[in-house]
Amino acid sequence: MSTVRKAVSLLELFTLEEPEIGLSDLSRKAGLDKATARRLLMALAEHRLVEQEPVSRRYRLGAGLTRLARIRDAQLPLLPVAIPILRELSQQTGETVHISEYSAGALLTIHVELSPKANRVNVNVGQILPLHGTASGLALLAFVREEIRRDCLRTPLAAFTPHTMTDAKQVLQAVWLAAERGYSRSGQGYEEGVHSVAAPILGSDGYPIGTVAIASPVSRADDSVAAVQGALVIEATRRITKQLIGEPVEPAERALG
Amino acid sequence: MSTVRKAVSLLELFTLEEPEIGLSDLSRKAGLDKATARRLLMALAEHRLVEQEPVSRRYRLGAGLTRLARIRDAQLPLLPVAIPILRELSQQTGETVHISEYSAGALLTIHVELSPKANRVNVNVGQILPLHGTASGLALLAFVREEIRRDCLRTPLAAFTPHTMTDAKQVLQAVWLAAERGYSRSGQGYEEGVHSVAAPILGSDGYPIGTVAIASPVSRADDSVAAVQGALVIEATRRITKQLIGEPVEPAERALG
DNA sequence: AACGGCGGTTCAAATAATGAACCGATAACG
DNA sequence: CGTTATCGGTTCATTATTTGAACCGCCGTT
Fold it and tell me: What residues does the IclR-ED domain cover (chains A, B) (predicted)?
């Protein structure tokens, strides 16, 4: 494993639940020697990607990350634009709504608006979603470049639940349906008991840069609910796309059977 | 130079002005071989710290940074709390206001509210401020732990303008004055023609975690203006501190002559 | 006082990083 | 329309960096 990968994997040990970690703990969790972990941390600290709490001597993520993230967000300010729209969508539907960003062949969940209901779907920020097993993934596949879709479906498809579609043909059917309707649907393909509906956010080139999904307990989902949610999620993503680009964007391509 | 440092220095080449850079360009700017730069970028991309624009093949900062920054900000949510207060402060004074975070022995500027006036001070997000040459630095030094202050003033002090105080005794005088008044003042210590007034934001332990500064053209600054700005910047930092911690915080220590 | 865990350091051995030369593709030029 | 330059990307023998077991001093517990 390259040194850089090890260093970054150290960064990824910090979570919302555990934002400060000591050296020994950190090295154990990363599977690295203490000396190695320390050298990597020092290098990261030099650029403020981590910092050390002076009294406890524990490490935490550094201010440099805030800075870099702001540079990125200035270029592609997804969250500030999307969050109010997601909140509204969550209120309209009473369900958990999450937004994911497409990056390096996968979807990364970057924000969640939780349903106020006691029986709700919980989604974590930072979660990586498989393209073939989630509504978000299907919505993305329905509008990406043909080549990316092919690459994704060529590799063997992992099963996350007994309901996961692992046959490429089957997935393609769902993708075609999503391309036609404008929204995708997935029942328990990634997590048991979770039903989702999703639509893509388009970039200025007409290809998806991410997705928005509404996740409900299966007990509250049926065809008519899905149709309503589908229409709402399409509207939400259109609004986000429009605000992001400054004008409505048409999909550059649609998966067609 | 360690591999990690090289990798991070690649990240730091991306700026608001140039958020997308090609491989050759990137390797030249970093002073690295093209092959080396590429390997580093691949490692970073694997963790989504950078991503590659599929068509132009140029690189840009990745979504993983947004995610990590959100974890950090959840722990220390300076900006969301501070920005509205900074904006107000900028409107009250008509001057440029900036906030910096203390990390690893230096101040990093994390947000700027620019003055609406034509003749204004421009400050860039991401800029690192020297502790002895800026009002922000002096405000910090006035309230940090004795040991940090000593360490800072022991090393030779760089001169950024003919006005920079490079004598530790002289700097200490300014620090003492700042500790007494609650705000610091610096005239052209870092940039010609810039006058600044600053105060510290305190963490729950009573030590500064950052500073807020009001930067004016020297032509608009005199003793009475500075006194007014000083009172305003103290009030702003107190409000930020209070919102951050949940209650007012008294300084743990003051530099005293 | 003995113990165990912490953060941090050392240095010979082992492994990973390096970069000059190369490839094919694309854009610019006379 | 060939020539040239630059792009992103790759290769592999050479080289320099990373590695980790053992060590330190420190602190709180037993």
Answer: 64-246
| CATH number belonging to the domain at A76-245, selected among 3.40.50.1980, 3.20.20.70, 3.30.450.40, 3.10.20.30 | 3.30.450.40
Q: Is A75 on the interface with B (CB under 8 A)?
A: yes
Q: What average pLDDT does the segment B65-93 reach? A: 87
pLDDT of residue B30: 92
What letter would DSSP give residue B133?
Answer: T
Element containing residue A250 per DSSP (H, E): none
B256 shares contact with chain A (CB less than 8 Å): no
Q: b/e map of B226-250 (b: 16 or more CB within 10 Å)? A: beebbebbbebbbbbbeebeeeebe
Backbone angles phi, psi at B212, to 5 degrees: -120, 135
Q: Which residues of A touch B64 (CB under 8 A)?
A: 103, 108
Give A3-68's CATH code, choosing from 1.10.10.10, 3.90.1510.10, 2.102.10.10, 3.30.465.10.
1.10.10.10
Task: Measure the CA–CA gap between A243 and A150, rounded to whole angstroms.
Answer: 30
CATH class of segment(s) B77-245? alpha beta
Strands, sheet with B50-52, edge to edge from the N-terminal-most edge strand: B20-21, B59-61, B50-52
Kindly report, residue by residue over B86-123, the tens digit of the pLDDT. Answer: 999 999 999 999 999 987 678 989 899 998 888 899 99
Tens-digit pLDDT profile for residues B192-231: 999 999 999 987 667 899 999 999 999 999 999 999 999 9
pLDDT at A97 over 70: yes
C-beta of residue B175 within 8 angstroms of C-beta of residue B165: no
Query: Beta partners for A214?
Result: A97, A197
Q: Residue B203's pLDDT is what? A: 79
Q: What is the DSSP letter of A31?
A: T
Res. B247 pLDDT band, cuts 50 70 90: low
- Chain B contact for A118 (CB, 8 A cutoff): no
Task: With a cut of 70, say whether residue A141 has pLDDT above it.
Answer: yes
* Residue A233: DSSP 8-state: H
* Confidence check: pLDDT of A247 > 70: no
CA of A32 vs C1' of D10, distance in Å?
30
Chain B residues with beta carbon closer than 8 angstroms to that of A16: 71, 74
What is the torsion angle, in degrees rounded to the nearest 10, for the CA atoms of residue A222, residue A228, residue A230 and residue A235?
Answer: -170
